[in-house]
Known about the structure:
The chain is α/β, with parallel strands linked by helices.
Amino acid sequence: MTDMRTAAMDHLWLHFAQIPSTGPVLIERGDGCYVWDSDGKRYLDALAGLFVTEIGHGRSDLANAASKQAETMAYFPVWGMAHRPAAALAAKLAQLSPGDMDRVFFTSGGSEAVESAWKLARQYFLAKGEPDRMKVIGRETAYHGTTLGALSITSIPPIRAPFEPMLNQLVTHVSTTNQLHCDRCEGPCTLHAADEIETAILDQGPETVAAVFLEPVQNSGGCFTPMDGYWQRVREICDKYGVLLVSDEVICAFGRLGTWFGGQKFDYVPDMITFAKGVTSGYAPLGGVITRPHIADAFRANDDIVWHGITFGGHPVSCAVALANIEALEAEGIIDHVATNEGLFRAKLETLLDHPNIVEVRGTGYFYAIELMKDAANMVPFTADEAAELIGHLKPALLEMGLIARADGRGAPIIQYSPPLIAGEDEFDIIVDVSRAALDQSLAEMAG
């Protein structure tokens, strides 16, 4: 196994990582909520890989679905023709999605899904005779992917900087729904964060804005949940100016929030949903865009061709795996399991609030973050240098103690959790105990 760690060090580009000078941790196998490395060490995968393995690791039913489909027909595109797995999955997603959403454009991942949604929006408005509508609005600190268009909507400076200027002239970023640090309302929330979207539309010119891209719960920055009424106000604003509302659910869909989709959690129907990750629980790569009827109707009215396609979008093996994954989520009551246990998960995490450096627990479903401060009682944040140092200690400390979670400094320092949806009280206890111990160890190391 040392040879494989050396091979990874010498030949493998690790994503969002420095070129390794030593062999990286080599994950060998997984079962349920846990994975093991090449030395036999067990880790609780409290990030579900990367917000992906909803059903858990080591499922033979999903592996068998892939094998069976590969033997029947391993590959065929959906370029002008269809195949059974793609058709069946599209119909199933239409059934599960909120409101009247009824048509699916498949991709092979999340960045492609966001890219495709923007392109569909652009061509939709061309079909409607509104060629100036090409701009989009996103939120500060948000992550929407790394392809050129998706990265332009992303608002994380270190990720964007090497690739500027991208499509910056087409994107405006507005405030998040981070309520801990919001100082816009002196009394009850006035939904200023939603109203900023209207201001941005007016500033850009409504006739130039195609879409608003938002996550139901914003990932980057640490699980920012919406204020009551936020999504209803955003829907109202988009309708007022004829702007498409895109719900980026690459992370939030397929049970992560305790519902199939974010619209069902927060009572809204977007014009498009982008999805990936949990649709297959990571057993095969797949993503896509779900749209409402009026999107396709605009293309149909002009007999327009969709001038966009992806070789592996709607791959038959991936679609077969997705169908098996959804079948298992339904048969085993996994979505209800999350809805039933999210309160327990939060309650366990909230026991950490007695720690002098933990200021808030936020999130919903099985998607939570704790925010860290130098002095939580007095709301004194870490400096940027202190936060970077803390994250630098936390990452190895969590791994050393057998917990895969995200120690992140995009915004305030946080630890983020997104375990497989089959997790229960035992896993919650491990998350809490290790997080406390790793934070204490990291702070002690900083103190020297």
